[in-house]
Write a structure and sequence with these properties.
This protein is mainly beta and about 425 residues long. The strands form 7 sheets. The protein has a 4-stranded antiparallel β-sheet with strand order 1-28-27-26. The longest helix is centred in the first third of the chain and has 11 residues.
């Protein structure tokens, strides 16, 4: 069980265990006088890989407790691994792509990595498609613990894949791999037939043979919003639950949730909230999901609707049940954005970003009673430069915050210890 943190305990842990993670064996000097440091090093592909220059680094802790990190740099995808998540340099960094590509990389659309129960390593990334605002999702695997990786291959079963973006990746306890993404193939078909079609669609595929082959692409639901991240977690029966921003009615861009059954078919879609946000555009602000050991589903999201605006949290006691009333998170006046929620034992954590006009901060709240009550927000990291979305990850020893910034590079903070 993770220690339930008081404010003083949290600050003590942060002060003792903040790590700036660099490329293997590297050193990092901060710029002085509040000026942005020079990143000439990052403009030279021959200096890659360097975590000071990593785009959208995304972490994952494997079942054996080791840390995996995937990121993009100079058109290539890299994977790093180290045994101890909290400290040390990366023992191995692998380049996944043989040739540089036009990668589709931003905070919402980023490479993903997951490790199966047998120690296999799986990853996805997206290259830009032939048409504007399209992409192609690629998958690669390692069946020798990350010593070597397969040549990346396309997940789409379209004749000419070019309509997939915003993929999410997961592996359940039985080793089944799930990939879900937003797909525009039905939009393109409708346009050719001169029919109306809103947004894109949520598609998914799965593999039961360690990633050697995948099922046919399956449509989970028509009319997803086309430009926000998707998220996935596993229910108590080891089947995935996927959430995404969806278009309800004519143009209400709220959030939906869908469970995939063991036979690979989708259950009935559920609506998370009725914000009724009508916007003719791309919010680029997706939701997040964490399912607790009791089976409660915890969700966080952003909306800018008339009835409510900002970040919000809600939970669902059981599948098919009503969600709790949305609870506001963060300070909208400080541009509170990009929340993530994570359940650890009986404790629930939410992190997000805010900007006060001078610096960006990651703030954290915690609940010890499954979201019924919450602590006051605590700032756990700050930067004066640009920054990526924050991520929470966990192992059997602690809780960690992963955050990449222009000044400090990729960092891993220990927030709680067992």
């Amino acid at each position: 069980m993770l220690r339930k943190l008081t404010f003083a305990a949290l600050f003590l842990l942060l002060g003792m265990s903040v790590e700036t993670a660099l490329a293997a064996g590297g050193t990092h000097q901060h710029g002085g006088g509040g000026q942005e440091p020079s990143f000439n090093h990052c403009s030279k592909p021959e200096n890659s890989p360097s975590l000071l220059c990593a785009n959208v680094p995304t972490p994952h802790i494997a079942p054996d407790g080791s840390l995996w990190l995937i990121w993009a740099e100079h058109g290539h995808v890299y994977v790093g691994h180290r045994k101890n998540p909290a400290s040390g340099s990366f023992e191995k960094i692998s380049r996944i792509t043989k040739q540089a590509r036009q990668l589709d990389i931003n905070g919402e659309s980023r490479p993903k990595i997951a490790v199966g129960p047998q120690g296999d390593v799986y990853l996805t990334f997206t290259a830009k498609g032939e048409k504007k605002y399209t992409g192609v999702v690629y998958f690669a695997q390692s069946q020798d613990g990350g010593n070597s990786f397969s040549v990346p291959r396309k997940i789409s079963d379209e004749e000419r894949p070019s309509s997939q973006r915003f993929a999410t990746l997961g592996v359940n306890k039985q080793g089944r791999i799930h990939i879900a993404w937003l797909d525009k193939r039905d939009l393109f078909t409708a346009k050719k037939a001169k029919n109306n079609y809103s947004g894109s669609a949520m598609y998914y595929a799965f593999s039961d043979d360690r990633g050697n082959s995948f099922s046919a692409n399956k449509k989970g639901m028509d009319h997803s919003c086309e430009c926000c991240r998707t998220a996935m977690d596993y229910d108590l029966d080891d089947n995935p639950v996927i959430i995404w921003r969806h278009i309800f009615g004519k143009n209400f861009r709220d959030h939906a949730m869908l469970k995939i059954k063991a036979d690979g078919t989708p259950e009935k879609m559920e609506r998370i909230s009725e914000d009724d946000w009508a916007i003719d555009g791309c919010p680029h602000h997706g939701p997040d999901l964490s399912i607790s050991a009791s089976g409660m589903r915890h969700v966080v999201w952003f909306t800018d609707a008339d009835k409510r605006s900002g970040l919000f949290y809600a939970h669902q006691q059981k599948q098919g049940g009503m969600f709790s009333a949305p609870m506001g998170v963060g300070n909208p006046d400080n541009q509170a954005a990009h929340p993530q929620v994570l359940s650890v034992d009986e404790i629930l954590y939410i992190v997000w970003k805010e900007f006060d006009g001078e610096k960006s901060s990651v703030l954290l709240i915690q609940s010890n009673d499954e979201g019924q009550s919450w602590s006051a927000p605590i700032p756990v990291a700050t930067t004066k430069g640009a920054s990526d979305h924050p991520f929470l990850i966990k192992d059997d020893k602690g809780l960690y915050l992963s955050w990449a910034t222009a000044f400090e590079g990729w960092q891993l903070f220990t927030l709680a210890q067992r």
